[in-house]
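request received
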Amino acid sequence: MSDFFSLSLSNPGLLGLAGLMICGVIAWASGLARLISAGNRAKFQRSVILAARSLWLHKLRSFLSVLGIIIGTAAVISLMGFGKGSMQDALADIKRQGATNIIVRSVKPPDDSFTASRGFVSNYGLVQKDLDRFQTFGDAISMTVPMRVFPTETRYLDRMINGRVVATVPEYAEVNKLEMASGRFLVGGDDVERNDDATMLNVCVLGAEAADKLFPFENPIDQSVQMKSMRFKVVGVVKERMPTGGTGGSLAAEDYNRDIYIPFKTSVARFGGIIFTRASGSRSAEKVDISQVTLTVDAEVDSPAGRAKVQAIGDEVKRILEEEHYQKTRKRDYAVTIPLDRLEEAERSQTRFTNLLVVIASISLVVGGIGIMNIMLATVTERTREIGIRRALGAKRRDITMQFLVEAVVQTTIGGLCGVILGLSNLFTLPFLAKWIASEKLPAEVDVRAIYLSVIVSIGVGVVFGLYPAWRAAKLDPIEALRHD
Amino acid sequence: MPAIVRIVDLVKNYYMGGAVTVHVLKDLNLSFDEGDFIALMGPSGSGKSTLLNVLGCLDRPTRGRYFLGEVDVSEMSDDQLSEVRSTYLGFIFQSYNLLPQYTVVENIELPLLYQGIKLDERTKERCIELAGMVGLGDRLDHRPLQLSGGQQQRVAIARSLVNDPHLILGDEPTGNLDSRTSVEIMQMLRGLNRAGKTIIMVTHENDIAAWARRVVRLRDGRVESDTRNDTRVMAEMN
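response:
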């Protein structure tokens, strides 16, 4: 369906319209060139001034007849602006997740309900071996960030927060673009390798909300929090993070602010390989080695080559996992998310949508052009005598054509410029209005192409729809025109 | 005196659709001298207006030749005729035919717009000078509708002079004016003629035709009479 739209509506519609306009502009430009090359620049300037004056003579009429052009242009400018704005917004959202990342997550397979209901430990997901195989990509991957995520109660004195523990590596901060509110994030030496290693200190980093809940009054740094029966020293607090998601796809919106980060190896040493989760009335246990691995591909997201590289590595990751998991266990206990896919999809659908809107807005321009033509035809009839007088005083047919054509083009050009101003003022004011009245976010971005496009198109509309009335005017017989009342 | 206008076996037919043909001018032969002042007269339908249109290069003859000076203009293209009008001819109409949106000076300037010459202070000064010559030096920025009929016709006369034409054509120049104003206009035209301009005008009033030096009467597309006004009578009128 969507492909149908993009093929049948936006492309031929836009192309046809653009073609029409380009023809008009070429005709206009060649006329212009002829005038100027004939050394008649002064004559041309004068005819523009005279055209503006005779339009000024009928201010209301001129305004009404260009209203369609003004609205059409304003619509094109605003729609392209809002389209670009929401596209940039979506892109920024995706880039926040890391557009060159490949995210591999453990997923509980659907046919595993048997083991779960019987209280068996269900064993699924990514394992260390997968991680090792990802290392074969070498330099193509700039960072590999494994994560174990499990829910745990964390206490400090009588305060408690029920959040997630995220066991990960120091690079996590870079991949997720974390900013610290105070202290530091995990570093290489924080890992506790063995459970009986009493000399090593457990450390953790708190999310913004977790810190706020546990330490509403105190400075959390260097305090100890308790998880299960173990103590963890707080070494840092992360600044508040924007939740990801909201643009659909397989990444659900997640709130990171209640997360507590501990070193990856510490989690294995202290919590063990099996993670118990308690739901109301039942117990279940899962053995998950690694909940998620984020691979950052060393590539530029804005270049096609970089995008191809991300895609290629994504395909390879899928192939490895297929081989390691599906072919061995007949279970798909993993999911691969490539944000770039969603980026590209978002770009495509946004472009398609914007094109559609612009085509609809362009209809207004065409209607505006018809309005101009209508008024010009009436004007030619009304000014038949003037045409006769000018012809008697030596005006050639070409001069008459030019006079009316210039009048139409001056009209649509002024209309187009007014429309640009109106459209731009929409772009600058509507987001504030939307925020103020409806508390809606309405991202807008000025699209310079839209300004060029709509000014050129309105000039083109003037030429295309002014040509026929101008030709009618020039065709008039001077004697009959002079006799006309 | 050399002939400025010479028409040879001039025929003008109008085709009224179908097989109906109206023969307006029938093998007309006429020659007008440079510096002359000619009145074309005749009842309506006699072909005097058609003749004036042909002489004014607004219409082309069906057959025959029309020499303007030495040049045969009877087979010129539309563009060439426009150029001839712009360069050699001046027009004065019964209903003045000024452009209402332009000022007096701009109306006088109008023929220059189509000559391809640059409109600057110099041309504007010439227009102001002409406006002063026809007695409208104090009305330069008035619009036609703010002027009386006689004043408008004087603007039209100034306009017909701005391109320094070889020939001035008048289509009943006093037709819309009262007799006192008509005399003013005719005095002005006579003055121009004395200064060397060739004038051909259509009129159906004898006392207007009396201002001309030569009166050509048409009837049914042919010359009925061709007389010279008595110079003694003309002298008396002054």
